[in-house]
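Data deposition worksheet. Section B asks for the primary sequence of the deposited chain exactly as it was used as input, without tags or linkers unless they were present during the calculation. Section C holds the resulting structure in token form. Section D is free text for depositor observations; keep each observation to a single sentence. Incomplete worksheets are returned to the depositor.
Section A, Depositor: J.P.
Section B:
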Amino acid sequence: MVYIHFDIILFEILIRLNGRSIDQYKCVCKQWNEGLSSWPFEWLRVKYAEEYLVIYYSCLLLTFKI
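Section C:
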């Protein structure tokens, strides 16, 4: 059986949240605020959003191809 560390699962969930939710989670505690405000986390959220938009728009183009 493969075990995945809880932090990895939590991180994968957090990078998918919108900005408002992230701001709410920053209020949980000081460590969460520091982690969610760090540049690596912000960079990964941007990269995830870019990949999501590319996939989303690619699907739209394929769907509405004339």
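Section D:
The mean pLDDT is 78.
The chain has four helices and no strands.
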